[in-house]
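Dissemination and training. As part of the outreach component of the grant, students in the summer workshop were shown how a complex can be specified as a set of sequence lines and then modelled as a single object. The example used during the hands-on session is reproduced here so that future cohorts can follow it. Participants entered these lines:
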Amino acid sequence: MHEYSIVMSLMEQIEQLAQDNNANEIIRVDIKVGVLSGVEPHLLQNAFDTFKLNTVCHDAQLNMQLQPLVIECRQCHHKTELTERNVICPHCKSYDTRVIDGEDMMLMQLEMNAS
Amino acid sequence: MCQDCGCSLTDHSNLHSNPQLNDTKTLSVIHKILDKNDHEAQHNREHFEANNVRAFNLMSSPGSGKTTLLEHLHEYLPKKYAVIEGDLETSRDADRLIAKGIEAYQVQTGSACHLDAFMVHQALHHIDLKPIDVCFVENVGNLVCPASYDVGTHKNIVLLSVPEGDDKIEKYPVMFRRADLVLITKMDLAEHFDFSLVECRKQLEKLNPDVTLIPVSVKDAQSITAVANWIQKYQGEF
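and obtained this result:
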């Protein structure tokens, strides 16, 4: 259950951004959660809804974009979005691939009301 | 340590934003949520490197043999090492290592299910890195949460013990994807369990083709030597 720690980091970042932009209220928070980021989206949502109450996000809506795994093959150079949790190139079956998305948690966009 | 390395994060508050969007009250950020942790982790890494120390993050479920491995490894590894221990409660693990003459510092996380870079930083204030070559961070026993946190080590070592079963790689993909070395521990019990090394290799290859797998038992000196050799291989390669 590290989703609470992650939401705390997220809130810290948002509070800072709100302050930097003279915002008194955050309306929407867009985040991207990779399928292999190690985070359970449902728990993250619950943690956000619990923590937001005493923050600048108290009425904010959390939009989560689930990012599938995307790999680039070093052999056939195909870029593929995968549904399975492996890193094998479905085109040439090579194991020599590079993960280019689906392992990170990112804050993407904030919609805010400025004072 | 901090007077040397300037660990306050004040220079890092300038998040990247697009000023053109500020007027519309929509701010594009594109920023890692754990950025502060990652920044601190990098700072820890630089501290290790400044002292010529290689650092390894040991992760596994509770009871798979992290502390036992560290208790035995010093007989095989011709390098001096210290250990940062993470547990929710007690300093039993650190005490076990200290009893073997290994320097260890215990972090008690309370209810936190993982170590983060800030906790490791705090622990580093209690460890003199100058006389050591290697630092192990023994993470909280957990196959889920520690995988999301860079603590500032150089390599990740993930342990899976035979009694846990060979299906755990597929069940906990994020952890095994992050591993640089996977140790299958308690191999001396293999005959009592339906554990397949072939299946482990197959699952690991699909998820993390570059990983090294070493089956070990503390009763088999050769297997621990293989771990010591793997660790030595990374000496000096920053």
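Confidence is low (pLDDT under 50) at residues 1-16 of chain B. Students were then asked to discuss how this feature might be tested experimentally.
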